[in-house]
C-alpha cells in the first residue's frame, strides 16, 4: 500500500447550493481558520472562471501556517491544493491532516444544505489501478527481474505488461508506478525512474498508433 494525498469533494446538485455553501462556511470557520479574500482576488485576477476560494490556516504544533484552495468543478467543490506559507512543501501526512480537518469543518454546513462531503483514502493499492492480468504481468516482471541490468526474458515480461496496460487502458500514472517499484519492491530509484519513463513513453506511443489506425 502506498501513502497518497487525500482528495476532498463537496458534492452538490446545483450552483445555488454551492454558492450558499461557501458563504455559510465562511461564517462558521473555527479559530485558526479564515477566509482570505485578498488571496482570492489575486488568484482570480489571473485565473478567471471558475473562481478560486482561499482559506488561511494558522500555524500550530506539528502543522505550519498554510493556505487551502477550493474550486468548483462541475457540480462539486474540490480542494485543488494546500500550500504552506513558509515551508517548502507539506508532507503527505500534514497535507492529509489538513484535508481531514477541513472535512470536519465542512460537514455540518454541507449537511444543512443537503450536500455530501467525500474524502478519499490516504492509502492506495496499486492493484486498484490495474486489471488482474496487468497486475499479474507486473508482478511477474518485478519478481523475476535483474534489477541492475535487464535480461532478455525480463524485457519480454516488461513488454507484456506494457501491452496489457495499454490494451486494458489502465489508470496508472508513471509517478505511482515509480513509487510502487521503489517502496513495495525495493527497486533502485534510478532504475524505477527509467522504467516509469519507458512506461509513459510506451503508453503515449501506443495511444498515438491507435489513433492513426482509425
Compact overview of the structure:
The chain has 214 residues and is an alpha+beta fold. The protein has helices at 15-27, 37-47, 92-113, 132-144, 152-167, 174-184, 189-213, and strands spanning 2-3, 8-11, 33-35, 52-57, 66-73, 76-84, 116-119, 123-124.
General description of the model:
Strand 4 and strand 5 (66-73) form a beta hairpin. This protein has two domains: 2-123, TATA-Binding Protein; 126-213, no CATH class. It has helices at 15-27, 37-47, 92-113, 132-144, 152-167, 174-184, 189-213, and strands at residues 2-3, 8-11, 33-35, 52-57, 66-73, 76-84, 116-119, 123-124. It is elongated. The protein has 214 residues and is of the alpha+beta class. A six-stranded antiparallel beta sheet has the order 3-4-5-6-2-7, sandwiched between helices. Strands 1-8 form a two-stranded antiparallel ribbon. Helix 4 (132-144) runs antiparallel to helix 5 and helix 6 runs antiparallel to helix 7 (189-213). The chain is 52% helix and 18% strand. The mean pLDDT is 93.
